[in-house]
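To: structure subgroup
Subject: Chain for Friday's discussion

All,

I'm putting the inputs and outputs inline so they're searchable in the archive.
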Amino acid sequence: MDAVIQASDIELRAGARLLMSDVSLRVGAGDRMGLVGRNGAGKTTLMKVLAGLGQPAAGTVVRGEVGYLPQDPATADGNQSALARIMSARGLDAAVTRMQKQAARMQEASMRDDAMRRYARAEAEFLAQGGYAAESEALSVADGLGLTAEQLARPLQTLSGGQRRRVELARILFGGGEGVLLLDEPTNHLDADSITWLRGFLRSYPHGLVVISHDVALLRDVVNRVAHLDATRCVVEVYNLGWDAYQRQVEVDARRRRREQANASKQAEALRSQAERMRAKATKARQAQTMLRRADSLEASVEPERHADRTAALRFPEPSACGRVPLRGDGLSKAYGSQEVFLDVDLAIDRGARVVVLGLNGAGKTTLLRILAGEVPPDTGDIVAGHGLVVGYYAQEHETLDPERSVLDNLLARCDLNQTDARSVLGRFLFSGDTVFQPAGTLSGGEKTRLALACLVVSGANVLLLDEPTNNLDPASRAEILAALGDYEGAVVLVTHDPGAVQALQPERVLLLPDGAEDLWSDAYLELVSLA
């Protein structure tokens, strides 16, 4: 089947809630569509349906070959090497794994002859499936996404979350063939150089693309069509325009709607005024009713204005009282197998301190935050909790949320609020009605982010450990969290690729991993944020 997706008259729901109806769109060769709309509008749900991993409540989807990168990729076999995982997109992983295993056996003299024979058989199978030309292509994609040869040789379980995400993206791009690529937030965890490479790859990809992204620069550089999900009206509006032209057209359409609405209201008011005068005469009563119906019809015929998307009303908690040094780490070290992550790191978090943790992907930034949060133990060293410590931990992959429990139950597990007050808090984070009973595992990435932030708000934390808190957020919600971050009076330890988040925090210190060196913050470090 050709590389095409055709959705016809589809309706999507989240439980009883209508997300969108009567949606028809086509994606074929040469189409590079940006799928946009506020968090919770249904972008990820629609993407899953297009990928064949979900069914619409109504309508049909016909698809050819597709390559789908979900927002939270499923965990693959942790013992598989990163390179084998990428090569699995074309069925080459088994041969690659056997070759790697026999290459290791060749180092033992007693096994060398048998290992060489087994290696030759595995290599013959490898060559029959495309062999070294395919491997060269896979290595090129991996290199573009910032994966090193050392990382590609390692088991997946020894890689950081950001590195595993890069591996999954490399696997989808390598396996794309002639299929439509469906990418949900592909720039999450990428540094600036990798994002630049990805833009070039996607801009020249000829077989169709649908991308969900809050990276405006990527949308501007890559897409030639835009599908906007209007959560208020439950519709999808498709613009056959690039990003900047789409933005201009939205403004033109808004002005047109306002003019049409004003003209319709003026004409309807005149009709109703005339009808009122005519109703006084019995002979004119029927004509008056006709005029009133015309007035109602006139107003109803005008296309409604697109309402501004609502944003979460986010304010971090008033921090609980604590001692001068609420949290300290002494001589912290961590390794996974033979792979050392960091060694002998000391860190003292003073009351109200603002610290940014920098380091390349795999340097241990997420691991350090998990240790400070008590999620994993250090191999050496100690975590010392000061007087009155209350930690609030935001995990970049939302591991702190229980996917089986409802939105409401996840929040209640973090606080002593009654259901009424808890639902009031959730309402400020745009969870209302039956959505509070939805399992957290069914939420989109942006919705999980909002729920995790709501859990922080009710925690009373005096030390916030934030790991990529602006990932998956639409621009309005991102602005809200950055404003709240700037106002928070407690201590913050921040890991981020987002320079705007660092500027909002106004940090005092920087911790550089894996060495554990500390320094006073200066804007000279700002360039390292997007590269880290």
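Points worth raising on Friday:
The mean pLDDT is 86.
Residues 243-279 form the longest helix (37 residues).

D.
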